[in-house]
Design goal:
Length: 98
């Protein structure tokens, strides 16, 4: 399991928010008070990059949209964005990448 520092919790004031890790784009989401999750920006349909627009996750290629709290696709419910656990330790957020 590879752990990657996302950043200090204090730097994030609104969710979902775009974060870049190892040159890849992800979306950080707050699930509960001290619970966070990270979503891949790779669209499960055709691999295009999902955008965060006005708090909504949408793929511009064919218009699929994704539920921000689960990553589930609205258009095809069996599809979802890949997600990763996030842990909060010493005020820092770390992504647990497979
Ligand atoms: S590649 Fe994302 S909706 Fe088709």
């Amino acid at each position: 399991m590879k752990e990657i520092l996302i950043g200090s919790i204090d730097q994030f004031t609104a969710f979902p928010v775009e974060v870049e890790l190892d040159r890849d784009l992800y979306f950080l989401m707050q699930v509960d008070d001290d619970q966070y999750t990270l979503y891949s920006s790779v669209c499960p349909h055709g691999g295009y990059t999902v955008d965060l627009i006005d708090g909504e996750l949408e793929c511009p290629l064919h218009g699929w949209t994704f539920e921000v709290h689960t990553g589930r696709c609205h258009n095809v419910p069996s599809a979802r964005l890949a997600s990763y656990n996030v842990i909060l330790r010493d005020n820092q957020l770390f992504a647990q990448m497979a």
